[in-house]
Amino acid sequence: MKISIVGLGVIGGSFAEALKTAGYEDVYGIDNDQATLDTAVEMGIIKAGYIDGKDILPETDLTIMALYPKTAVRFTQANHDYFKTGAILMDTTGIKEKFIADMAEVVPDNIEVVYTHPMAGRENRGIAYAQGSVFQGANFLLIPTDMNNEDSLVFIEDLANELGFGKINRVSAAFHDQMISFTSQLPHAIAISLMNSDHEKRETGKFTGDSYPELTRIAKINEDLWSELFIDNKKYLLQSIKDFENQLDLVKKAIRDEDSDTLKTLFIKSTTNRLKLEEQMDKRKIKRK
Amino acid sequence: MKISIVGLGVIGGSFAEALKTAGYEDVYGIDNDQATLDTAVEMGIIKAGYIDGKDILPETDLTIMALYPKTAVRFTQANHDYFKTGAILMDTTGIKEKFIADMAEVVPDNIEVVYTHPMAGRENRGIAYAQGSVFQGANFLLIPTDMNNEDSLVFIEDLANELGFGKINRVSAAFHDQMISFTSQLPHAIAISLMNSDHEKRETGKFTGDSYPELTRIAKINEDLWSELFIDNKKYLLQSIKDFENQLDLVKKAIRDEDSDTLKTLFIKSTTNRLKLEEQMDKRKIKRK
Question: Would you say the CATH fold of B175-256 matches that of B3-171?
């Protein structure tokens, strides 16, 4: 089986590494940057690299597309005529409803797209930060569509398992986008706003314990990718921000009223919820072993 | 020099450990929980433990008070007559303006209080989570008052240095409280609100990468301590929340307007600010070595 990875950034590069570790050798890269392709070849994680999809797609059985949503649509459209009949095109973008609709316009009839979301993004970009190990125990979401064959879905699930992902779950595009707006995009919106609300010229680093650095790690953000993700998931993200603001309003009101009992109730609730989450995460780690 | 630590929780216990590591042997504990005192003696981090301050304070040269603000005031008041003349009472609470005013009412004339904030809190409570190593490279803030002698301030700064703290800085109570409302309390208010805005019964753990777990670690919170800190720092905390909300409003508006350029500008700003913070933190680490 020939596998091609499109986009050798932090995610694509990590797939290349994880595939290598899992024993896959017939792996190729497609990227618009020759230096990145050269690096990937030197690292030994791809056999050869191509600027042009048409030079390798006609022989490729599985294409893993690790591109930003709009770029992924453009790539699929531009290579419409070059995919091998019966091939699987695996998507890895972080939004689904709008993206699946956009893709439906450009996908050729002779291939099958499997929509997935490997939840292992990083705040750094580029192949230098690629690491196959980031997938170990990570969540992997699979979003079936009416166009999918069960065999293809199972094939991708097996591959995800082989590459070390922890929980592998099938969900609808709508539920995916709703959950991701809460667990991924909202935290990013918060981290950015927290970081940007610092006053200029304060030496904030002198006044922090762990909290502020931890809550702002993801304020270092890839602006091209995330502006797309935010806008394409507008409906759910605005709702998640609203839900968050409602909770923050409760905290604010309790502070303003010096209402210690309400604050304690909110803190006990958040503690309980956090412990539940930790339990879910621990189970994941246990499963991993 | 005899040192007594009041309150052998996560902070007091960590001081006991750090003092032991630094070679201090004449260290005692005061706590209202006999089991905690027994544990500390078994761990070898205190020589002996006392429920009652009056049994050891008359011989104590340095008292490190690791209590919640209100409890610290009560402890000082209750032991008004037992402090050794010329002793130093070191405070470690997370708020200062209101606390210093409250303390002024109860501190006996024959001792000197040095107000500090060792920035090494933990989301877990109790001696079981005490670790002297949490102070390594951590920020240590010292808040001089009109009552302080320079010698006493330098004495505490030297001690902080010896215990492994990184940056040691003197600041005013007002600036301390303003900065802490931003770097510590606001992140906690955010983490709590994020955690509490999850919908009931969703298996959120299946849908997370690193962001959500990271931004909610501190949603596991000591409700007694933090309700005090939030309310006692009301003025600055409400302002910091407001500043944060203003920034979040900019993100929201840009999403609503599908204004990709504004989003990118906000993301680039947060990235730049974060890199600045990392540079400050790296310098701290370098200094530590």
Answer: no
Out of A183, A247, A266, name the one closest to residue B212 (CB).
A183
Vertex A60, ends A55 and A62: CA angle to 5°? 140
CA triplet B131, B66, B166: central angle to 5 degrees?
A: 55
For residue B210, how many other CB atoms are within 10 A of its CB? Answer: 18
Is residue A99 within 8 Å of residue A69, measured between CB atoms? yes
Q: Which residue of B has its CA nearest to A250?
A: B193
What is the nearest CA distance from B241 to chain A, expressed in angstroms? 8
Q: Is A3 helix (H, G, I), strand (E, B) or coil?
A: strand
CATH for A175-256, among 1.10.3660.10, 1.10.1060.10, 2.130.10.120, 1.10.260.40? 1.10.3660.10
**Architecture per CATH, B3-171:** 3-Layer(aba) Sandwich (3.40)
Report the b/e string of B221-249 with b at 16+ CB within 10 A. bbbebbbbbbbbbbebbbebbebbbebbe
Mutate to test the interface with A, among B211, B214, B283 (most CBs of A within 10 A): B211
Cross-chain residue pair A195–B231, CB shorter than 8 Å: no
Angle formed by the axes of helices A186-196 and B260-288, to 10°?
Answer: 70
Distance from the Cα of B157 to chain A's closest Cα (Å) equals 15
Residue numbers in B near A206 (CB within 8 A):
139, 141, 167, 169, 280
Of A211, A273, A275, the CB nearest to B218: A211
Domain ranges of chain A: 3-171, 175-256
Nearest CA in chain A to B198: A182
Q: Are A205 and B277 within 8 A, CB to CB?
A: yes
ipTM for the predicted complex comes to 0.89
Of all residues in chain B, the one with the smallest CA distance to A234 is B255
- CB-nearest partner of B264 from A188, A219, A223: A223
Q: Mark yes or no for CB contact A194/B194 under 8 Å.
A: no
Helix, strand, coil share (%) of chain B residues, nearest 5: 55, 10, 30
Interchain contact, A203 vs B256, CB within 8 Å: no
| Cβ-contact A97, A173 below 8 angstroms | yes
Neighbours of A170 (CB within 10 A): 11
pLDDT of chain B along its 289 residues, tens only?
Answer: 999 999 999 999 999 999 999 999 999 999 999 999 999 999 999 999 999 999 999 999 999 999 999 999 999 999 999 999 999 999 999 999 999 999 999 999 999 999 999 998 676 777 878 888 889 999 999 999 999 999 999 999 999 999 999 989 999 999 999 999 999 999 999 999 999 999 988 889 999 999 999 999 999 999 999 999 999 999 999 999 999 999 999 999 999 999 999 999 999 999 999 999 998 887 655 444 3
Q: In Å, how far from its chain's centre is CA A289?
A: 23
Contact check, Cβ <8 Å, A227/B267: yes
